[in-house]
Design brief:
This protein is an alpha+beta fold. The chain is about 20% helix and about 30% strand. It contains 4 helices and 10 strands. Strand 8 and strand 9 form a beta hairpin. The model has no long low-confidence stretch (mean pLDDT about 85).
Length: about 160
């Protein structure tokens, strides 16, 4: 089921829920909040974030993530309870010079790093950014499993 919120500036924001959740949320005034980094969330004063409300999550140490990465898709099949580390693993890549998650240039070579439990883990130094990206992918799969967001390695022409 798709619903709409009209923001103060007139923008229409569409979000999705399961039809069986409509009764639970109707009559509550929801609005769309922007965290300043381009991420939107559906919220209500006094209730909080829609995804947490739908799953009944009240513990601030428990996080709700979105399988497809779309915070406006609040269908239960798209919501998953996860740890802070798992949520961090799913974050989109920040802009960097290598074009790969967890890869940086150091002098004339490339290094691979990953953050596990908020600690930096050095994965090695590599001749190519692609090899460093592959090392990151192996480590991300090991540490984060199904929550890992892996690099898409560009093939050399």
């Amino acid at each position: 089921m798709e619903l709409e919120i009209i923001r103060r500036n007139g923008d229409v924001i569409r979000f999705s829920i399961d039809s069986e959740d409509y009764e639970k949320i109707k009559g509550i005034e929801w609005h769309c909040a922007d965290d300043g980094k381009g991420r939107l969330s559906i919220r209500s004063s006094g209730i909080g974030i829609l995804s947490r409300f739908l799953l009944g999550v009240t513990d601030s140490n428990v996080f709700v993530g979105f399988v497809d990465g779309n915070s406006l898709n609040c269908r239960r099949s798209n919501l998953q309870i996860m740890t802070k580390q798992q949520l961090q693993a799913k974050r989109k890549m920040q802009k960097n010079t290598s074009g790969y998650r967890g890869v940086r240039k150091r002098r004339e070579k490339w290094i691979a790093l990953i953050y596990v439990n908020q600690r930096e883990v050095y994965l090695g130094t590599f001749e190519s950014r692609e090899d460093a990206a592959k090392a990151y992918n192996r480590a991300a799969s090991k540490y984060f499993g199904k929550f890992a967001r892996l690099n898409r390695i560009k093939k050399e022409i």
